[in-house]
Amino acid sequence: MKSIKKKLAGFYVLIALTLILGGCGSSAGSGAAEEALTIDISIFHTENDPFNDIFKEWSEAIEEETDGRVKFKPYYSASLVSLFETLDAVRDGSVEAGILSAGAISGQISEMGLLETIGTFSSEDQYKNIYKDVTPELESLFSDHKVEILMWAPGATETLVLHKEDFITDLGQYKNLSMRTAGRWQGEQAKLLGAMPITMDPSELYLALQNGTVQSTFQTVGLTNSQNLHEVTPKMTALGLSINTIQYVVNPDVWSKISEKDQKTIKKISGEVGQSSYSMLKKREEEALKSMAEKGAEFYHLTDPEREELLKVIQPVNEQISKESAKAKAILEVIDKHE
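RE: above sequence
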């Protein structure tokens, strides 16, 4: 009888061990098979814009290096929310992620005016040095505004001034010229030139130029080409200066759903793509300029003396921005250090 009881006791112990080990195996398996997270991202530009080369390289690298655990699903041409509403939408969670422009948010985050204005970057090396040193400041700044910044990039390495009939080469031509500007501080630069700035979403610009609502604009090469602005303003003056920047941001609650390991991977990729974006844009801009010329656009490139004369008038805006906050002052110090 005792022998039977011992055998039964051993049998029960064996069953218990089997269940415990099976449970552990099941738990480990569920942890390994982490559920994929697809993040909707609002994008103001079109799918054929040079900016999309940056987005594709970034998003494809993230999907590959996280083994498909994190994916960004694009919604182009502001189909989720307009550019000027994207910051608020990402912050309140109605949109999971978005691409901003410094010009569109500098009214809310005044420090971003330093990365909105014309002429911030003059070379790729300078941009890379500024990127490395400014990024920690931006991470802190955007955290204060309840969004997570992942990456940023130049708006353009070349700025165009568009007009229906004339090349804008003389500073006197800006007087009383109605100009679409991307944000608060480009507007201040336009005022210093004697122009009348008007802020509007990029999607409205073609009709505004066609109808004469605005006579001109400071514009990136990429948006000029992708929106076919050469059709309504064929006279284009190339300033030889950078303009604006774009920022990739995500809602903090969405970011917290990503594992720490994948967050580090995303930050690493973002740093690499962010720093390489200048050369990517420059190459696509050269292609776009050639394409527009073949379609009838005409170009005038400012001479070095003309460019210096322009900068003397518009660059004092940066000092004004730096007085907005301690962070603005710190950002300008970094930019000036790499001038």
